Amino acid sequence: MQNRLLHSFSFRLAFTYMVLFGVSVLLLLGFIYWSTAAYMSRQADATIAAEITGLSERYDIDGLTGLINVINDRLSRKPTGSSIYLLTTTINTPIAGNLNRWPAIQADGEGWLNFRLENAGRDKNEIHLARARSFTLTGGFHLLVGRDIYELEETQRRIIRALILGFVITLVLGGFGGYVLSRRVMRRLEAINTTSREIINGDLSRRITLQHSGDEFDSLASNLNAMLDQIEELMEGVRRVSDSIAHDLRTPLARLRNRLELLRAEQEKTRQDPTLAEQAISDADGMLKTFNALLRIARIETRQHREAFNKTDMAALLHDVIELYEPLAEEKGQSLSLQADSTVYIQGDRDLLFQSMANLLDNAIKYTPARGRIEITLGEKADKGWITIADSGPGIPEAERLQVFQRFYRLEKSRTTPGSGLGLSLVAAVARIHGMTLRLEDNQPGLRVRCEFTTIHITNINKS
User: Fold this and answer.
1) Which of 82, 162, 284, 345 could bridge to 148 as Cys pair (CB 3.0-4.6 Å)?
2) Three-point CA angle 113, 68, 91, nearest 5°
3) pTM exceeds 0.90
């Protein structure tokens, strides 16, 4: 179920929406971070620039002594503040400030210096980053004004962590929401698929359950149920007409055959040639077989209850089929062999399975030339069984392999042989109600019919 969910269209759609939503959230959070961090950095730079302007004006008014007094006054008021000052001589000897030496770095293109402050903060082993700007006063003195940007960086890091956490929570909630949504959609679709499979298996009375939610799935289910009602009505009408025709024609054909029998007996009494009567009787028998086959296929296809289904030994069934047809194969000098696993069982109707296997073997014997070979194999692996009937006959062209299961369809080269074209149709009908898969393959030369089905383990045979 999980694998099907991950590969479902609804999950892929939800995942695509989650990715698009996640990318949108990431871009939004990135913009928030960029605008917030840039604003804070601009504020710090503006503060430094304002302090430089103020100190420069004080130097112009009060001279060096006044500048030193201002710097010392600011540092005394906030000795642990984030402001950084350093006033040096022309040879960078410190005069005033809270730095013990001039930073040994070069300013960037805009005149800003970014350097490390050792033994900063409460923990003397901490190293903070600082951002400052320097300028030269008249008289050759150098003034450095900056700020400890540890708090700014810490704030930015917290913003980044908050944005990452928000993005992760968005993805988790989006993924969970997509998973829940996909499971709900999968349940609705699985209900439709389950009903469809039951209808395919022949139960045309099944309908899709409505949730009465008024959503698109209920609308779809209502339309499908209406369509199924109409299809069932049409199918039932066609079936009634077919059954009526078969029943109505079978009775007069039976009467016709009886009269032909009487005619042949009368001809034998009067010593007349009974050939024409025998040919007419043969034609009537062929027509009766055709109508009986049509009625049998119709009964198989409309069978919804499986009271006759039992655990069937397929090896024993194939032995019985071969025993029935072995004399016919010997007449044509054909080699008929069976390789069977004696532990293959299936839940099914033994009579129908016998009839379908008999039809396949009858076709193989009919179209395999004299002294040809027919090989039947029965096997099982991992609760999957298969039967293959391979012959050395002319085979069936690949383009016609699906059409031969249609009623009355016959290959051009087989139209001269007796038959009605209903044998494989009956096989296909039996396969459908047993959940079997039929495949026609090239045997090089000849045809290989492969029938696959679900088996029942031998240890379960006496449990029901």
Assistant:
1) 82
2) 55
3) no
